[in-house]
Amino acid sequence: MSIAPDAGPMLADSPPVILAAEKVTKRFPGTLALDSVDFVVHAGAVNVLIGENGAGKSTLMKILAGVERPTSGRLLLDGVPVEFRSTREAAQAGVGIIFQELNLYPNLNISENIFVSREITRGGVVQHAKQEKVTRELLDQLEQPLIPGTLVRDLRMGQQQIVEIAKALSQNVRILIMDEPTSALTAAETRALFRIIDDLKTRGVGIVYISHKLEELLTIGDYVTVLRDGKLAARAPARSVNVPWLIDKMVGRNVRPARHRAEAPGRDAAAPVLEVNRLSLPRQGGGFALQDVSLTVRPGEILAIYGLMGAGRTELFECLMGLHPEASGEVRLGGRLIQRETIRERIELGLMLVPEDRQRLGLIQKLSVAHNISLASLQRFVTAFWLSDRREMAGIEKLIRDLAIKTRSPLQPITSLSGGNQQKVVLAKGLLTAPRVLLLDEPTRGIDVGAKGEIFEIMNRLADQGLAVLFVSSELPEMFIIPDRVIVLSKGKVAGEFLHHEITEGALVAAASGRLQPKAPVAPPPPSQPFS
Amino acid sequence: MHIPAAAPVSAPVKPSGLSLGVLLFRLRALIALCVLTGIFSVLSPSFFTQQNLIILVGQTAINAIMAVGMTFVILTGGIDLSVGSTVGLAAMASGLLINRGLPLPPLGVIVYFNVPVIITLSLALGLLVGAFNGLLITRFNVAPFIATLGTLYVARGTAQLSNNGATFPNLVGTRELGNTGFPILGAGSVLGIPIVIWIMVLFAAVAAFVAGKTPFGRQVYAVGGNERAAELSGIYVTRIKMTVYMICGLCAAMTGLITASQLVAAHPGVGESYELNAIAAVVLGGTSLAGGRGTIWGTIIGALVIGVLTNGLVLLGVQEFWKKVITGLVIILAVVLDQLQERLQQRLALRRA
Amino acid sequence: MHIPAAAPVSAPVKPSGLSLGVLLFRLRALIALCVLTGIFSVLSPSFFTQQNLIILVGQTAINAIMAVGMTFVILTGGIDLSVGSTVGLAAMASGLLINRGLPLPPLGVIVYFNVPVIITLSLALGLLVGAFNGLLITRFNVAPFIATLGTLYVARGTAQLSNNGATFPNLVGTRELGNTGFPILGAGSVLGIPIVIWIMVLFAAVAAFVAGKTPFGRQVYAVGGNERAAELSGIYVTRIKMTVYMICGLCAAMTGLITASQLVAAHPGVGESYELNAIAAVVLGGTSLAGGRGTIWGTIIGALVIGVLTNGLVLLGVQEFWKKVITGLVIILAVVLDQLQERLQQRLALRRA
Amino acid sequence: QPALAQQKKLIAIVVPSPENPFFKALADAAEAKAKSLGYETLVLVHNDDPVKQDQLFDTAIARKAAAIILDNAGADASIAAVTKAKTAGIPSFLVDREINATGVAMAQLVSNNYQGATLGAEEFVRLMGEEGDYVELIGKETDTNAGIRSKGYNDTLSQYPKLKKVAAQSANWNQAEAFQKTQTIIQQFPNIKGLISGNDTMALGAYAALKAAGKGNVIVVGFDGSPDVAESIKAGEIRATVLQPVVRLSELAVEQADQYLKTGKTGSEEKQTIDCVLVNPDNVKGYAAFSVKE
Ligand SMILES: Nc1ncnc2c1ncn2[C@@H]1O[C@H](COP(=O)(O)OP(=O)(O)OP(=O)(O)O)[C@@H](O)[C@H]1O
Ligand SMILES: Nc1ncnc2c1ncn2[C@@H]1O[C@H](COP(=O)(O)OP(=O)(O)OP(=O)(O)O)[C@@H](O)[C@H]1O
Ligand SMILES: [Mg+2]
Ligand SMILES: [Mg+2]
Prior knowledge:
The complex is a heterotetramer, with 1 copy of chain A, 2 copies of chain B and 1 copy of chain D.
Chain A: E1 17-28, E2 31-42, E3 46-51, H1 57-64, E4 72-77, E5 80-82, H2 87-92, E6 95-98, H3 110-115, E7 121-122, E8 125-126, H4 128-141, H5 157-170, E9 175-179, H6 187-202, E10 206-210, H7 214-220, E11 223-228, E12 231-237, H8 243-251, E13 274-282, E14 288-297, E15 302-307, H9 313-321, E16 328-333, E17 336-338, H10 343-348, E18 351-354, H11 358-362, H12 369-374, E19 382-383, E20 386-387, H13 389-402, H14 419-432, E21 437-441, H15 449-464, E22 468-473, H16 476-481, E23 485-490, E24 493-499, H17 505-512
Parallel strand pairs in A: 3-10, 3-11, 6-9, 9-10, 15-22, 15-23, 18-21, 21-22
Antiparallel strand pairs in A: 1-2, 1-4, 4-5, 7-8, 11-12, 13-14, 13-16, 16-17, 19-20, 23-24
Chain B: H1 2-10, H2 20-26, H3 30-43, H4 50-75, H5 83-99, E1 102-104, E2 109-111, H6 115-138, H7 144-162, H8 184-187, E3 189-190, E4 193-194, H9 195-213, H10 215-225, H11 227-232, H12 237-263, H13 274-284, H14 296-315, H15 320-352
Chain D: H1 2-7, E1 10-15, H2 21-36, E2 40-45, H3 50-62, E3 67-70, H4 79-87, E4 92-95, E5 107-111, H5 113-128, E6 132-138, H6 144-157, E7 163-170, H7 175-188, E8 194-197, H8 200-212, E9 219-224, H9 227-234, E10 240-243, H10 246-263, E11 271-274, E12 277-279, E13 287-288, E14 291-292
Helix pairs in contact in D: 2-10, 3-4, 5-6, 7-8
Bound molecules: adenosine-5'-triphosphate (2 copies) and magnesium ion (2 copies).
């Protein structure tokens, strides 16, 4: 098989190749997603695949898993040419995949999701009990105490991703493809996953691992393959490379690392734009999703909400948007009390949420990129009583440029965009409404370093323009750089609040896990207090 | 955001999971059923008599059997408008086979079958119609609504052509030809219960088992829940869809045989607009037309609601036009009641919080 | 996985975006339309005559106008089975107002309106029926299928009760009462083109504009595409849904008025099972019953396909039963043709890439 | 073929629904007659939808039909269509059902539904022995003939105090519906002695239900005189039906149409009614497709 220029070192003492893609090219109408790419999967190793959003990673994986067929090029299984005409055939060959966009059945429960089409039966009867037992074992491995009988519809993103992983683990595969498996996982959950990956390695399973979390890649990766614009950019053993190398190979240009911007003078004097006072939200079937949450945000401030999954961060945002009428407590926007306002009214008042689950809450899959972006701001493009195409398109194209959304034309169906670019589209929709307070729930999920940098830059820029930006993230590293202030939620309560200079990993983790006594909320910070 | 709201109620309830009480409570339209029964029992002395209840259930059976098949189709997110015509077609087939036999021109002979064979052949015809629908929907991916609408016309037309618009009368068969006994299907009874009812029970029980306990059943729900995911996780979506439409065709044919047997005649127009009743029963039973959610027992309850209503209104001798109005209102109220009960449940759930 | 496949074709195409040629080519069922027209022109000399074409389009209009309203409903992912009954109800309303006037018991007077007012009132009634559907679907979140099925019965029953089953005859009005001229709506013509056709064109044009060019239209597509996402983007889903059902009711009422005016009589049974034709037109026109995809012009083509077929088969004097069979087959073929053409296009697109 | 069509004159025959043997016989007879008189024929079906009927008339006009034989879709709702044809110079000859207007149609030949109903009722009375409970099945209530027949029945039956009508329901001319409704009614009134039906299809459905319930001896009387009921009468099940001389009707209509086209006048006044004939075991042997030889 052909060897890429700098692939020399890695073939020396490398374990055998199970699956190889040779000169694989994939054309979509109007896009060349893959351009004669070579890729190999080593047995008992973690084969990392990285690249910018839209580089072609998922497409390549879909080809390995039999979802898509290559326009040209071929696959070799144990050196023998093979053709996967369906995921079924791929699975029979021992290829398992965890898709980037979750593929679950909301109407079925966890164990049914895991065993669908591979049910455990006796005499043609499905052994639900048995399935649930196995499911519980799998979930224990993943350290997720979930009830196998819960409907997947009622799970949140992170939990759904766990189910996907469990599903893949339940079928003993020779090759396991993971397309951004940790995008919705917390540090703890990720660690659990890594333990499992190590275990799989020892059992000789070849793992393909895609992620945009570069540090993570280097910790578990054995071999790194970099794609750029559908071409093979580089290959190397993981130990021989570092983050700057990765960034350089995948982006080509040097990306400005996310920075904490210089504080704007007098910001702290300004009146708070958003005040939340003793917000509480009961959870169905007992307990509170949120309990007496109070916080204030000033114009031009970036406030991060940190916490573990299930901490209630998403609910906090949902309450602010008015999705939970049963919530109690008061919310003030620019001093004005908000209670009965509809979502539209809140948007017009300058509140905008970029939801965490882009597929279910963010996108209209049947509309084009353009129409998705303008959806929340149509009124602004109305002349007389119809839409002005020209003005609408102008607004849309500006954002596509600002956020560097990778799409052939604004009229492309949204489904044809890569995961990360879809995320950008949702963000673009939010920005087009010209909000005063922007609520970003996991805005950097599934976004490449370059784009992440861009998004943080945008957040900084918006803050400089006087916007208040609240963002939820499960990524510790992000906490140290961008936010002026971090509020940690734990089990629905405010478990701590830290100013930029106070933020340390230990403190955040302690607070998130509820081990730290919440000090009296310090917000708003005293004007004298200098930022560093 | 009523989508999640609906979830707890109409999710495929696993009997194993919860007590029968809860199960019943969870079935849609049950309240409506009780209320209606109550009202009619009060208004008409002859309603809540054993005899009438048997007749009522018997009349319901015809619709229920179709609805059972329809449930599978709707669970996959499809729909079958052709059931009514299939009823007519199967009826005519049985009529033809009994009165005329099967002419085999090449051999220059006419073959007469005995009743069991005739029934089998007519049911097979139903399967065939279903397969035709399935083929259109899977191979040529025609939208189920359109595909089955087409079949609705084709099958009806064929039924009418089969005897050039005329009825096959007096389907008693003759001893010499050994094809007597067809009327028993519709008129006979075992242990005092009409055979029709036994058939309904059989179909319902088997269907409920298949839907709830077999891999096929799970996969039907899966296809309805997320077809693309189903494709990707190796389910033979095409095969599943083919099968559900064939099941639906089979059930419709069964209904056709029963009506023919009851009327002791095969009328080419029989079954017209039955599809609406069947679908109504399914939806009243809490199955979501979007697919993926619903139960067979729910469907049976739905069919009973319609059955009780029709029977009761006849007993009260309500004038035809008022019948229509009342039927409409009840159908709507049945579901509204349901929604309210559901919300109540949620309110309570929160209260408990 | 035809879901993404279909997207590029039937996504709300912005005419500005592409040349009319491409637009037409993209409209579903167009091929079927051309083929049919061709066939009939050959088989029957009197088919492709100006006179017959006008008649044909006029007959299509009745269905097309309903279908236009139905398109909006289906775009939101809903369905309206009650249009047929609404047609009957509106017809009876106009009949009542012309022949009997509006009795106001309290005042002990009977008010007679002139034709424009009568038309307005009847249309308003249509809006009312739509609002009723919308209310059930949004407030009480009853599944559209069931809600409108209920309304189907209620509205039909009411129509029949309105004159106790009888027809309102001879709707010419009287000069003294100043309510003459109603028949013109159905019989009159402007510039040699029947008013009916002008109405269809008007409705279609306005609808196409609304669907393609206004925020409302865009939001209709959004609601059909992903209701929850739409809601989060600040769209008043409830309001949108209410509106589409009211539009649908209005269009149905318009059809009712036209038929009453053509018959110069209001028959309580008029419009029965029209809903199927309307829905068929919409789906033939390439609108997805799942919502979010489709165009008004597609619907018009769909209606024309049905119209040409009916008219052509009558001209040829095809025997009734065969008519059914052929109609069914054509409906199916129309869509199959479409699928093939679509695949071809994609193949080409890839070639070009 | 088209060339030929130009020479031959066209007669359009518009009927409700060939699914009902009654209308089928009507259409067939008319068609046969017209062909024998050297016309081309075009049989059209309106399924009781006046709008469809109106459209069929448009088509008939477009086809330049010489005359239209019509079994209409509504006494009032059909006037416009017939008028339209008249103004287009096409004469309409109505059979079986009248319209509520004169001077638009060339002829309206109807069997005397009222007289027929009276006939049936009298036979029913005789069979019942002038006493006992009975049920009436009414046709589609939006249908003129359903009303006339019901009236004919009741005007006669109400004269016998010992005859008690325990239930009256519409079964919309429909066999299966008649079956279910009868099924329900007879368990409500287990000891009914007779059932009189607005047409034969309903009578057949009703009798099937009665027989299944072991009440085969209940006296059932129908209306139309369809072959199936004739068979049933032969088998001693249904007791009697009222035969409408539909074959005669439509033949007459075609003859008058022919005469009008040749001479410009029909030779008979517009409204013509022909009396119905009772069919019962006595004369059923002489029955053949909607006609009996005494
Ligand atoms: N079905 C499709 N039709 C058209 N273009 C497509 C389709 N699927 C993917 N593409 C294009 O192929 C390119 C690669 O997409 P892919 O999903 O592989 O990117 P990716 O590397 O996975 O990005 P991300 O990190 O955001 O997931 C993108 O430009 C995308 O727009
Ligand atoms: N312990 C729990 N029990 C039941 N439901 C939970 C639990 N934790 C979370 N959920 C549900 O999951 C959804 C999202 O949870 P939540 O908003 O608390 O997570 P989060 O803090 O936003 O974390 P993330 O946003 O990273 O998923 C909510 O609908 C919530 O009801
Ligand atoms: Mg990807
Ligand atoms: Mg969250």
